[in-house]
Amino acid sequence: MSRQSGVITLPADVVGQPGNLPRHCARHGLPAVRQQDFVLQSKVKVEGNRFLTQSNVIGMGERLSDYGKKVRTADVKGWPLCRKCTSTRALWLAVASVMFFGGLATFVGSLVVATVADDMQWLGGVAFAGFALLPLAAFPFTLGSLPRLTGARTSPDGASVLIENPSDAFAAELPGQ
Ligand SMILES: [Zn+2]
């Protein structure tokens, strides 16, 4: 492993084997209450101006397949999550699902009411508000996501996993220390 300006690099095959990761969480340095398996993606730069100029469906499809080719993933086995990590994750995922399902229920509910009630134009506003909540649920969902929580991501070539500013307790237990 190597450490550069707060970012630790671990080989992807080390992270992909159970039992290699520390027993303290990377974020808070607290003892892990559970080990989590997940798949980490690399960050991909999506060119912004093509998104604006190319609004046709074929362009979209091409860009998505470009994206698919550039994304690298790494398996993570037994990542340590402490009590704080798990409660943060549970909280944000709960907020996200309340927003999503609450928004959906509001949207569908107001449409249903609109079909039986006459002269209720305000329902359109309620339906819109419910609908607007759906994409907004992505924000708490991202906050509770494992890459965000762990501060880890896959390198662009997929050969290693990068961990940003891990706790000392986590860093001290890494293989090769
Ligand atoms: Zn933690």
Summarize the structure in words.
The chain is elongated and about 70 Å long. α4 packs antiparallel against α5 (122-136). With 177 residues, it is of the alpha+beta class. It has helices at residues 12-15, 48-53, 57-70, 83-116, 122-136, 138-143, 146-150, 168-172, and strands at residues 2-4, 7-11, 34-41, 73-81, 152-154, 160-164. The protein has 8 helices and 6 strands; from the N terminus they run ββαβααβααααββα. The protein has a 4-stranded antiparallel β-sheet. The protein has one domain (2-172). It starts with a strand and ends in a 5-residue tail after the last helix. Bound molecules: zinc ion.
